[in-house]
Write a structure and sequence with these properties.
By secondary structure, the chain is an alpha+beta fold. About 35% of the residues lie in helices and about 15% in strands. Belongs to the protein kinase superfamily. Ser/Thr protein kinase family. GCN2 subfamily.
């Protein structure tokens, strides 16, 4: 009896069969016009144009060379991918497209934004040096957009833990009318089963005191606290927030000094509540979004 011959596939030497990683050279192969638009301690951000669809994107490349994939290095990808799937269409979280490992560094492709809220604050200082404070409508827009992004993030069982003007970006799309978007979810997954050492690495100027003390029971309220301080910083621009000292302690006792009169009393009261000393006294994002000083006038009508 004739036995059927079996054709066997030759063993593979690597991801593409010849020992080479297909992701090596991907940045230059898939994108053109690769230009640095930002540098940080842990990463560099590039403005790129896709060679196929011709659209502009941002690609963040970590500066640290990775020796094997560790969960702490992938937490931003994990958070972005999960939030993108669960909350597709939310305009207030930077949109995630792809990620890959190339040359030992993690690359994360997201939508390209116009600038950061920190950039807007600096622009205002240059254009209006006599009074660079943000007014009622500007501050309310930031509170509304960031609270909406946080509501979605918290609904997906994530917290951000590093809300600050540097991580709030301005949309470049006309249809979104310059709305604000939460970016940099590098600490987001740290809230899930991690210790206080992971969580307390956010910017100390915006970090809630209970998190520094290791109380992780109400982490979403730590994001609300940070948003309260961002709002306070906008209203007192260009006065910087303290990193430590007596004023730092006073703020964490719920004392916001010199909250300017250009904010209406309802909005000023909301800012004070968001920055309350105790987490239980801070409003959840759903309540913030229903506040009369934050609801757009068209919606009120």
């Amino acid at each position: 009896q004739r036995q059927a011959s079996v054709r066997r596939r030759p063993p593979s030497n690597g991801p593409d069969g010849d020992g080479r990683d297909q992701n090596e050279g991907r940045l230059e192969r898939e994108f053109t016009g690769v230009t640095v638009i930002g540098r940080g301690q842990f990463s560099t951000v590039y403005r790129v144009q896709n060679r196929v669809d011709q659209c502009l994107y941002a690609v963040k490349k970590t500066t640290q060379i990775m020796r094997g994939l560790r969960s702490t290095q992938l937490r931003e990808v994990f958070a972005l991918a999960n939030v993108s799937m669960e909350a597709e269409g939310c305009p207030n979280i930077v949109r995630y497209f792809s990620s890959w490992l190339e040359d030992g560094r993690l690359h994360i492709q997201t939508e390209l934004c116009e600038c950061s809220l920190r950039d807007r604050m600096q622009e205002k200082r240059k254009k209006e040096p006599a009074d660079a404070r943000f007014g009622e409508a500007e501050t309310a827009a930031v509170v509304r957009d960031v609270a909406n992004g946080l509501k979605v993030l918290h609904g997906c069982d994530f917290v951000h833990l590093d809300i600050k003007p540097d991580n709030i970006l301005v949309s470049r799309h006309k249809r979104e009318d310059g709305c604000y978007k939460i970016a940099d979810l590098g600490l987001a997954a740290a809230a899930m089963g991690s210790g206080c050492d992971d969580i307390s690495e956010g910017d100390c100027r915006y970090l809630a005191k209970e998190v520094l003390r290791g109380n992780l029971a109400e982490l979403p309220k730590a994001d609300v606290f940070a948003l309260g301080l961002v709002s306070y910083e906008l209203a007192t621009n260009p006065k910087p927030l303290p990193c430590n000292g007596d004023e730092w302690q006073l703020i964490r006792e719920g004392c916001l000094q010199d909250l300017p009169a250009q904010l209406s009393e309802p909005l000023a009261q909301l800012v004070r509540h968001m920055a309350a000393a105790l987490p239980v006294d801070r409003p959840p994002c759903e309540e913030i979004l229903r506040h009369p000083s934050v609801v757009p006038q068209t919606a009120q009508d």
